[in-house]
Every structure is written in structure tokens, then in C-alpha cells.
Amino acid sequence: MRPRFPSLVLLALLAWMPARADDLASAQRLWLAGQRPQAVEQVEQALARTPDDLQLRFAMGVMRMELGERAQARGIFARLTEDFPDLADPYNNLAVLHAAAGELDEARAALEQALRLQPEHAQAQENLGDVLTRLALRAYQRAQKAALAPSDALLGKISRTLALTAHLNKTR
Fold it and tell me: Rounded to two decimals, what is the model's pTM?
């Protein structure tokens, strides 16, 4: 699964973030130059001045995701879904974090909400497909475990779904 805005696409955020474009542009330059701690610090300083700024909060969530700080990113995106419940992107990114933690039902719910808000959200559509594939694998494995006798048909489904999930993991 992919977040809506990977690190190299943070620059695209500037197009719809006029309020703090200078702060974000500077942070983006630092980020792309490999100065990630300084970029995070710049966004944190801007957030100290304008703590409710949607764009800065979203950028901080993306940065935390990219740094592997999933708990912090999850908190940021969860608060964004509460404060801005009509925006699809925070739900999509929250779903990515849920899926990474193996919380597939929560990921599916977040993606379904993102798609209710923005039905043509391509990344959320793709991410939902990934989550549904993993949910299918989980269901097939549970069915096999509960079966009284091995099922060749079920083993075939598990094998094909495992191959698909392996392929999905390679394309990330």
C-alpha cells in the first residue's frame, strides 16, 4: 500500500497549500537534500506558530510516515480525520498505517471512508484492492484451518493469493 503523498511528492503539496508555502518549500528542499531532521524541525516550528494549519499538519504526518515513525504519523492522521472529516487523503494515509500494522479491517474502513468522500481517488482505490487481497488470503487461510479435510480448491486459492500478495509487495 502506498500513502497518497510519498516523500518526493511533498512538493506537490505546495500547489494546494498557500498558507505556509514558504515554510513547506523550505522544508521540502531540506528533505530532498537529505536533511530530514532539519526539515521536520522547520515544519514543527511553523506548526508552533500555526498549530491548526491543515497543510503543515498533513506534511508532518507524511514526514513521520517516511521516517518510519508510524505511531506519531497515525496520531497526526487520526486527528486530521477528526478535524477535517470531509478530506479523503488523511483517511487514505491512516489506512496505509493500519495495513502496515496488520490491522486490515481498520484499513478497509478508512479506505472505504476515503472513497465515500472522493470516489475517484486512485490511490485509495489501489490501496483498497491491496487490503481486500490480504483480507481474502486471511479468509482462505482461516477456512483451510477450520476445514475437516484439506481442500485442493482452497489450497489453490491460497497459493494464487499468496503469489499475488508477494507480487504486490514487490511493486511497492
Answer: 0.83
pLDDT of residue 167: 86
Question: Cα-flanking dihedrals φ and ψ of residue 75, to 5°?
Answer: -60, -40
- The model's confidence at residue 10, banded by pLDDT at 50, 70 and 90, is very low
Helix (H) or strand (E) holding 157: helix 152-170
Contact 133, 12 (CB under 8 A): no
Q: What DSSP state is assigned to residue 9?
A: G
d(CA 166, CA 110): 23
Rounded CA separation 23/91 (Å): 24
**Strand (E) positions, the chain?**
none
Query: What's at 117, amino acid-wise?
Result: L
Which is nearest to 46 in space by CA: 30, 65, 32, 66?
30
